[in-house]
């Protein structure tokens, strides 16, 4: 297996998903996830996309995100809301609790470490 892996979703079948119904605050958000890397020990990387809606999020994992397209608002409980759009990068740390609201269908690259 080569040590270089391009993040290319052309040959990866996306997984369909959605937030748990009890976490949805508005809309009918749907997810597509192209997981291109999955390693023992809980490391994942790929592309994630969500359609408009708002839901509660709770992070037990560490995640690096880079927004490729769309607009979302991420609000931490007790903190400020942050609008993210194409070109923005950020980390969500374990213990993050708040909301994710997709204003325009959003696609991101991600790396998750459990």
Automatic annotation (TrEMBL):
Q: Which InterPro entries match?
A: RmlC-like_jellyroll, RmlC_Cupin_sf, UGlyAH_Cupin_dom
- Tell me what this protein is called: (S)-ureidoglycine aminohydrolase cupin domain-containing protein
Which Pfam family name is an example for this entry?
Cupin_3
What the entry lists under SUPFAM superfamilies is as follows: RmlC-like cupins (SSF51182)
Q: Domain (S)-ureidoglycine aminohydrolase cupin: where?
A: 38-110
């Amino acid at each position: 297996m080569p040590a270089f892996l391009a993040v290319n979703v052309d040959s990866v079948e996306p997984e369909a998903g959605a937030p748990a119904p009890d976490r949805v605050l508005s809309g009918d958000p749907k997810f597509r996830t192209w997981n291109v890397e999955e390693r023992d020990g809980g490391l994942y990387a790929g592309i994630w996309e969500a359609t408009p809606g708002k839901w509660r999020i709770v992070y037990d994992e560490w995640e690096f995100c880079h927004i490729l397209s769309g607009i979302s608002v991420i609000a931490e409980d007790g903190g400020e809301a942050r609008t993210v759009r194409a070109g923005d990068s950020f980390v969500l740390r374990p213990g993050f609790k708040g909301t994710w609201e997709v204003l325009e269908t959003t696609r991101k690259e991600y790396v998750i470490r459990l």
